[in-house]
Design a protein that fits this description.
The structure holds two protein chains of two kinds.
Chain A (H helix, E strand, L loop, with lengths): L10 H12 L2 H5 L1 H7 L6 H26 L3 H8 L4 H30 L22 H5 L2 H10 L14 H18 L3 H27 L4 H9 L9 H14 L6 H7 L7 H50 L11 H11 L1 H7 L8 H6 L5 H13 L4 H33 L1 H4 L4 H16 L7 H12 L1 H32 L5 H29 L3 E6 L4 E6 L2 H15 L1 H23 L1
Antiparallel strand pairs in A: 1-2
Chain B lengths: L20 E2 L5 E2 L2 H10 L1 H8 L25 H45 L3 E2 L2 E2 L25
Antiparallel strand pairs in B: 1-2, 3-4
Classes of the chains: A mainly alpha, B mainly alpha.
Chain lengths: 592, 154
């Protein structure tokens, strides 16, 4: 008697699981950056077009495949065609790479969260140097928040080659992060289903609190105006459209097998079409919502820095010329500077190298993405708010929820094929399999806690998933449309939902989405080939800023291995199945 | 009665030069180095008297020694880390143990049910009890080969 497949308690758990997985850190730290770089409010146009052309159809496709086949990614693609088991294996490999490095972000979020319970916040001031006459030299050259990130959190080495030792503090946080993930996936859908209620809804609560706080901050309006003024000429730049397509693609988490895994735990009659539309819309709306919050924070930080800069210039001039306090203000600063230049030309020219030109636009123009935005820019803004501990705790707790929600999806993508395969599942209970996966990932993840760990993190972040996913999803779409057959798929959907997909879905699946993915793939390949050697940003402690360096040979080899390990699974799977079938046929023909 | 106020070097700014005289020594001025040392020791009191801070009240030639931040004996983050770690480990242990207990209960129930069923009936097939037949291996009739490709596809 076959054990019945575990199911979600209700469709709401499934929707929350998908939202929790899709709404991740990328919505918070990548979309605002893209918005800023590619035309502000105008970026929404290519974004929404790509959502309709690529996001919704591909999401619906994956959910439908999972729900119909009721298996994890390996099993599902094997059913569609035995030659496609390689696609499932490639998904599992990519998910494995992702879970290796992604949980390090949760470890960093834990680190910052635990440090938020102090007054003043540790990144608010520079530490003193050894003889207490001034601040640490490295911290003087850069800002206290950057120093806290690069020196006290990462303890980063000057280059990739200098590996350094494992930082025990980060290793502890990483272990804790994996224990939390293990606790959530321990019982499969029973435990995951309850956890996703929290991980999906809490970030929205925090975002709303931050929206209210952010909009009431002084100078927030500057950031919002700067972001939302559309620069429509960016629409002519092909990079805008490519970035929009890429963002939609990766933001939804397609191709990892997580969506297939989640959908496989559905009732067969679940209306996945409606759910696909809901999830993709919520994902995009959250991106826009998060960018409103981010830009009001940007505006606050930029205005604060601009006003500090102006105060410093005023103080300098007051001290130099013994002027009356209050005679120099932000409004008359420019006229007074001209007047002083005319009246005391010699002293003024001596001061000129120290007088900085303060500009609000220059402050707003500093576009940051990724860990820099989440951990440096935000913490810099938070330290200047009132009751910074409260906002800091809320913010890093939200980052944790977003990160753990995505981790649940990643681990589900790895565990579902493992628990589906009868070979493994009959011998070991679910708890042991999950425990082994978490343990192996934790041990490998210790690489990212070394001094050079952040450079390896960047390698994984940039190369482990990008090309492979494009290829996987392309093969998936072509497989469903042309190998399985769109007519057969339509019939399956009709039996499941009671409604055939209309012409919009069919055209997107058969033509538009594959073409889009192929063009993205070609663009990335040509980009990598044209740039020649790959480079990375290394932190130079003596200058207090990032410098560009070339990757050493073995790093390039690792990058190549990462991409090859997942993409080669697809043809290898087909070849292995082909050989097996030939062998079986020969065996039987010799018997008969 | 205001005395001992001499004005010199008047500027627009709120700034002043001062000398300290020692009334016991017949009005001689106290040397500058002693005044500097005294100010360095009592900087905080002087700041508080004017309701100012080291950043807003500057004594030329006297740099302020920066006060180190207060550091508790155990770093705060370790305390929070310990609390969260204990909670998570307790949760994991609870779930694992309850899972093992449920598993044992299910095993006991199913063995009881099996014992009951064995007494009730012995299934027969062609007069031979099922246990005697090796149902797993079965008997494969080689004529009907299990090769999909020989048959025309539907």
């Amino acid at each position: 008697m076959e054990k019945s497949r575990p199911l979600w308690d209700n469709p709401l758990q499934f929707i929350f699981a998908c939202i929790s997985y899709a709404v991740g850190l990328g919505n918070v730290w990548r979309f605002p950056y893209l918005c800023q770089m590619y035309g502000g409010g105008g970026f929404l146009i290519p974004y929404l077009i790509m959502l309709i052309a690529e996001g919704m159809p591909l999401l619906y496709l994956e959910l439908a495949v999972g729900q119909r086949m009721r298996q994890g990614s390996i099993g599902a693609w094997k059913i569609i065609s035995p030659y496609l088991c390689g696609v499932g294996v490639a998904s599992v490999v990519v998910s494995f790479f992702l879970s290796m490095y992604y949980n390090v972000i949760n470890a960093w979020a834990f680190w910052y969260l635990f440090h938020s319970f102090q007054d003043p916040l540790p990144w608010a001031t520079c530490p003193l140097n050894s003889n207490r006459t001034g601040y640490e030299e490295e911290c003087e050259k850069t800002s206290s928040t950057q120093y806290f990130w690069y020196r006290q959190t990462l303890n980063i080495s000057p280059s990739l080659e200098a590996s350094g030792s494992v930082q025990w503090e980060q290793a502890l946080c990483l272990t804790l992060a994996w224990l939390v993930v293990y606790l959530c996936i321990l019982r499969g859908t029973a435990s995951t289903g309850k956890v996703v209620y929290v991980t999906a809804s809490l970030p929205y609560c925090v975002l709303i609190i931050y929206l209210i706080r952010g909009l009431t901050l002084h100078g927030a309006v500057n950031g919002l105006i700067y972001m939302f003024t559309p620069k429509l000429e960016q629409l002519l730049n092909p990079k805008t459209w490519i970035s929009a397509a890429t963002q939609i693609f990766f933001s939804l988490g397609l191709g990892f097998g997580s969506l297939i895994a989640f959908a496989s735990y559905n009732e067969p009659s679940n209306n996945c079409q409606r759910h696909a539309i809901i999830v993709s819309l919520i994902n995009s709306t959250t991106s826009i919502f998060a960018s409103i919050v981010t830009f009001s924070i940007y505006g606050f930080k930029a205005t604060f820095n601009y006003e500090s800069c102006i105060s410093k210039v005023i103080l300098l001039l007051l001290n130099a010329f013994d002027l009356e306090e209050g005679s120099l203000t932000a409004d008359n600063l420019n006229e007074m500077k001209d007047y002083l230049m005319a009246t005391y030309p010699q002293e003024y020219s001596q001061l000129v190298p120290q007088i900085k030109n303060c500009s609000l636009e220059a402050e707003l123009d500093t576009a940051v993405q990724g860990t820099g935005l989440a951990f440096i820019v935000y913490s810099e803004a938070i330290k200047n708010m009132e009751v910074p501990q409260l906002y800091s705790v809320l913010y890093f707790f939200m980052l944790l929820m977003l990160g753990i929600g995505s981790m649940l999806g990643n681990t589900a993508a790895i565990l579902t094929p493992l628990t589906d395969s009868r070979v493994i599942a009959s011998r070991f209970p679910k708890e042991v399999i999950s425990g082994v996966v978490c343990f192996v990932n934790c041990i490998i993840g210790l690489i990212f806690t070394m001094e050079a760990g952040n450079y390896w993190f960047d390698i994984f972040n940039d190369y482990a998933a990008t090309l492979s996913l494009l290829l996987i999803v392309l093969v998936e779409t072509i497989a469903v449309c042309y190998i399985y057959g769109i007519k057969r798929f339509e019939k399956d959907l009709y039996t499941m939902i009671g409604r055939k997909p209309n012409w919009y879905w069919k055209i997107m699946w058969a033509f538009v989405s594959p073409l889009l993915i192929i063009s993205l793939f070609i663009f990335y390949l040509t980009d990598y080939i044209l740039t020649g050697t790959l480079q990375y940003q290394a932190w130079d402690a003596t200058q207090g800023q990032l410098v560009t360096k070339d990757y050493p040979g073995y790093a390039l080899a690792v990058i190549g291995l990462l991409v090859a390990a997942s993409t080669m699974c697809i043809p290898l799977g087909a070849i292995v199945t082909f050989i097996r079938k030939r062998l079986k046929r020969e065996q039987i023909s010799t018997v008969a | 009665r205001i005395s001992n106020v001499l004005l010199c070097n008047v500027t627009d700014r709120v700034s002043f030069w001062f000398v300290v005289t020692d009334s016991s020594k017949n009005g001689t001025t106290v040397p500058g180095s002693e005044v500097e040392a005294a100010i360095r020791m009592n900087r905080k009191r002087i700041n508080n008297a004017f309701l100012l801070s080291d950043k807003t009240l500057q004594f030329l030639k006297i740099t302020s020694t920066l006060s180190p931040p207060v550091e508790p004996s155990t770093p705060v983050w370790l305390i929070v880390f310990g609390v969260v770690l204990c909670l998570i480990v307790a949760g994991i242990v609870f779930l694992v143990i309850s899972g093992i207990q449920k598993h044992k209960k299910k095993n006991k129930e199913s063995t009881e049910r099996e014992n009951l069923e064995e007494k009730v009936e012995v299934t027969l097939e062609n007069g031979i009890p099922c246990e005697a037949l090796d149902l797993k291996a079965g008997h494969v009739n080689g004529v009907f080969a299990a090769d999909d490709e020989r048959f025309t596809s539907l």
